[in-house]
Write a structure and sequence with these properties.
Rossmann fold; four-stranded mixed beta sheet; Formyltetrahydrofolate synthetase, domain 3; alpha/beta; Domain 2, N(10)-formyltetrahydrofolate synthetase; twelve-stranded mixed beta sheet; 19 helices
Amino acid sequence: MSAENPDLKIAQAATLQPIQAIAETAGIPAEALIPYGNVKAKVDPAQIPPRGENGKLVLVTAMSPTPAGEGKSTTTVGLADALSLKGKRTVVALREPALGPIMGIKGGATGGGYAQVVPMEDINLHFTGDFHAIQIANNTIAALVDNHIHQGSQLGIDPRRIQFKRVVDVNDRALRSIVIGLGGPTQGTPREDGFDIVVASEVMAILCLATDLQDLQRRLGEIVVGFTYSREPVTVRDLKIEGAITMLLKDALKPNLVQTLGGTPALVHGGPFANIAHGCNSLSATRLALSLSEITVTEAGFGSDLGAEKFLDIKARYGDLHPDAAVVVATVRALKMHGGVAKDDLAAEDIDAALRGTENLRRHVENIRKFGLEPVIALNRFPTDTEAEIEAVLGWARENGFRAALSEVWAKGGEGGLAIAEQVLEVIDAGNDFHHLYDPQVGVEEALRTIAREIYGADDVQFTDKAPMRLRTLKKHGWDTLPVCVAKTQYSFSDDPKALGAPTGHVLHVRDLVPKLGSGFVVALTGDIMTMPGLPKEPAALRMGVDDNGSTYGLF
């Protein structure tokens, strides 16, 4: 165990409760538990008797992050433990980490310090195999599409108009644009293709929005894999393979049960990225958590402009969810970066820069208010923060009428989140007027303009490259009244990752519109966003390994 990896060291030193004890705490009967060893299990919701009224739902989001992240998952876990300490029967519902980013930039993705979900190593590395199942299911569809074409293409699929890509849980830029089927007639039909990362797969999105096996199979059947020579859509149902793909996913659909360091039950399930997908854990896990708890704490990826907007406009719409409170995570270092400080200089005290950066935080708070929710700002403390910087930011919040409190969950676990928990409970008691930002019936164009103007601070939306043609296709087939899932950089309100702070007057450039009928939304690709990320010059994988005892090091 390395001193350079305190999160991993803390996780490895913890004594975990048997998963049966965690299930008992959550009220999960033994017949619903499918153990994967001693400290993790899958849960079959069908084996849990209906309960009474569901618990309250708390959504955790954040300001626009820096490349290193601001501790949103850490805050989510710490808040759940704090609510447990206050005597509330609490369950936390989180996404599963993706191996691509773990090996690339992020390292681990299970919280940090004394606010973690554990077993940290298992969750970060393969876990219960859900991502592998999704990868295989996705690629089986792709293989069957190409086989159909090779065997004569009775459906008349145009190889030039296939939109369903293969996926792999690795950040591999070399696979973004490839040619397959080379080598002669027995090797298939040559065509251009490419890979996405697993978290961008429509199969991932479907798994995270499906309510049961029947709904999963229905949604899988509606995936549009491509178009015929006469420009008519071809679906998985047309290929008659939705049953086989459902079979591959029947176990992956069940939520995973683990625990926090504070002993709070944690359902960790599903993992679509928030900047290229809808960025929320599975609806089945959230619903299960709500049925078991007094309070469910969940998160949505990145800032309010990405994961939270999609949670509130897509997941909450399809799942009939009504959030009772929202938390916006902020850090002094992120505020300073949005206030003009270079990344390498963030450790130096700069109160003025932190206050300049509050314009970014203000917009995130105002964004949440546009959904009828009153957010609580959680100022997540980092070791380099000074008391003067912290007090300046909290003072700014008080002066502007924003709820805010210091979060010290990394260092203190649930004890460090009690101040946030108290404010969250006050917000829950006050009630709210939650509503969606737009009605999908207005059409994709107008929905995009509403999101761009209200959430991003843009003046307008410009449709470029393939987008105008795709828009005509959406309207032709009656798909233009689906909700919109915007694929956009997480670092800025605009589609330019370098435009920090709270830019206004910009134009959102939409270069493609991809119908995802199984998911039930249209993906709008903006700027230079990639559905297959690349690796940095020095990937996190360079610092990872196992020691002579088989213990992991380098995850952080």
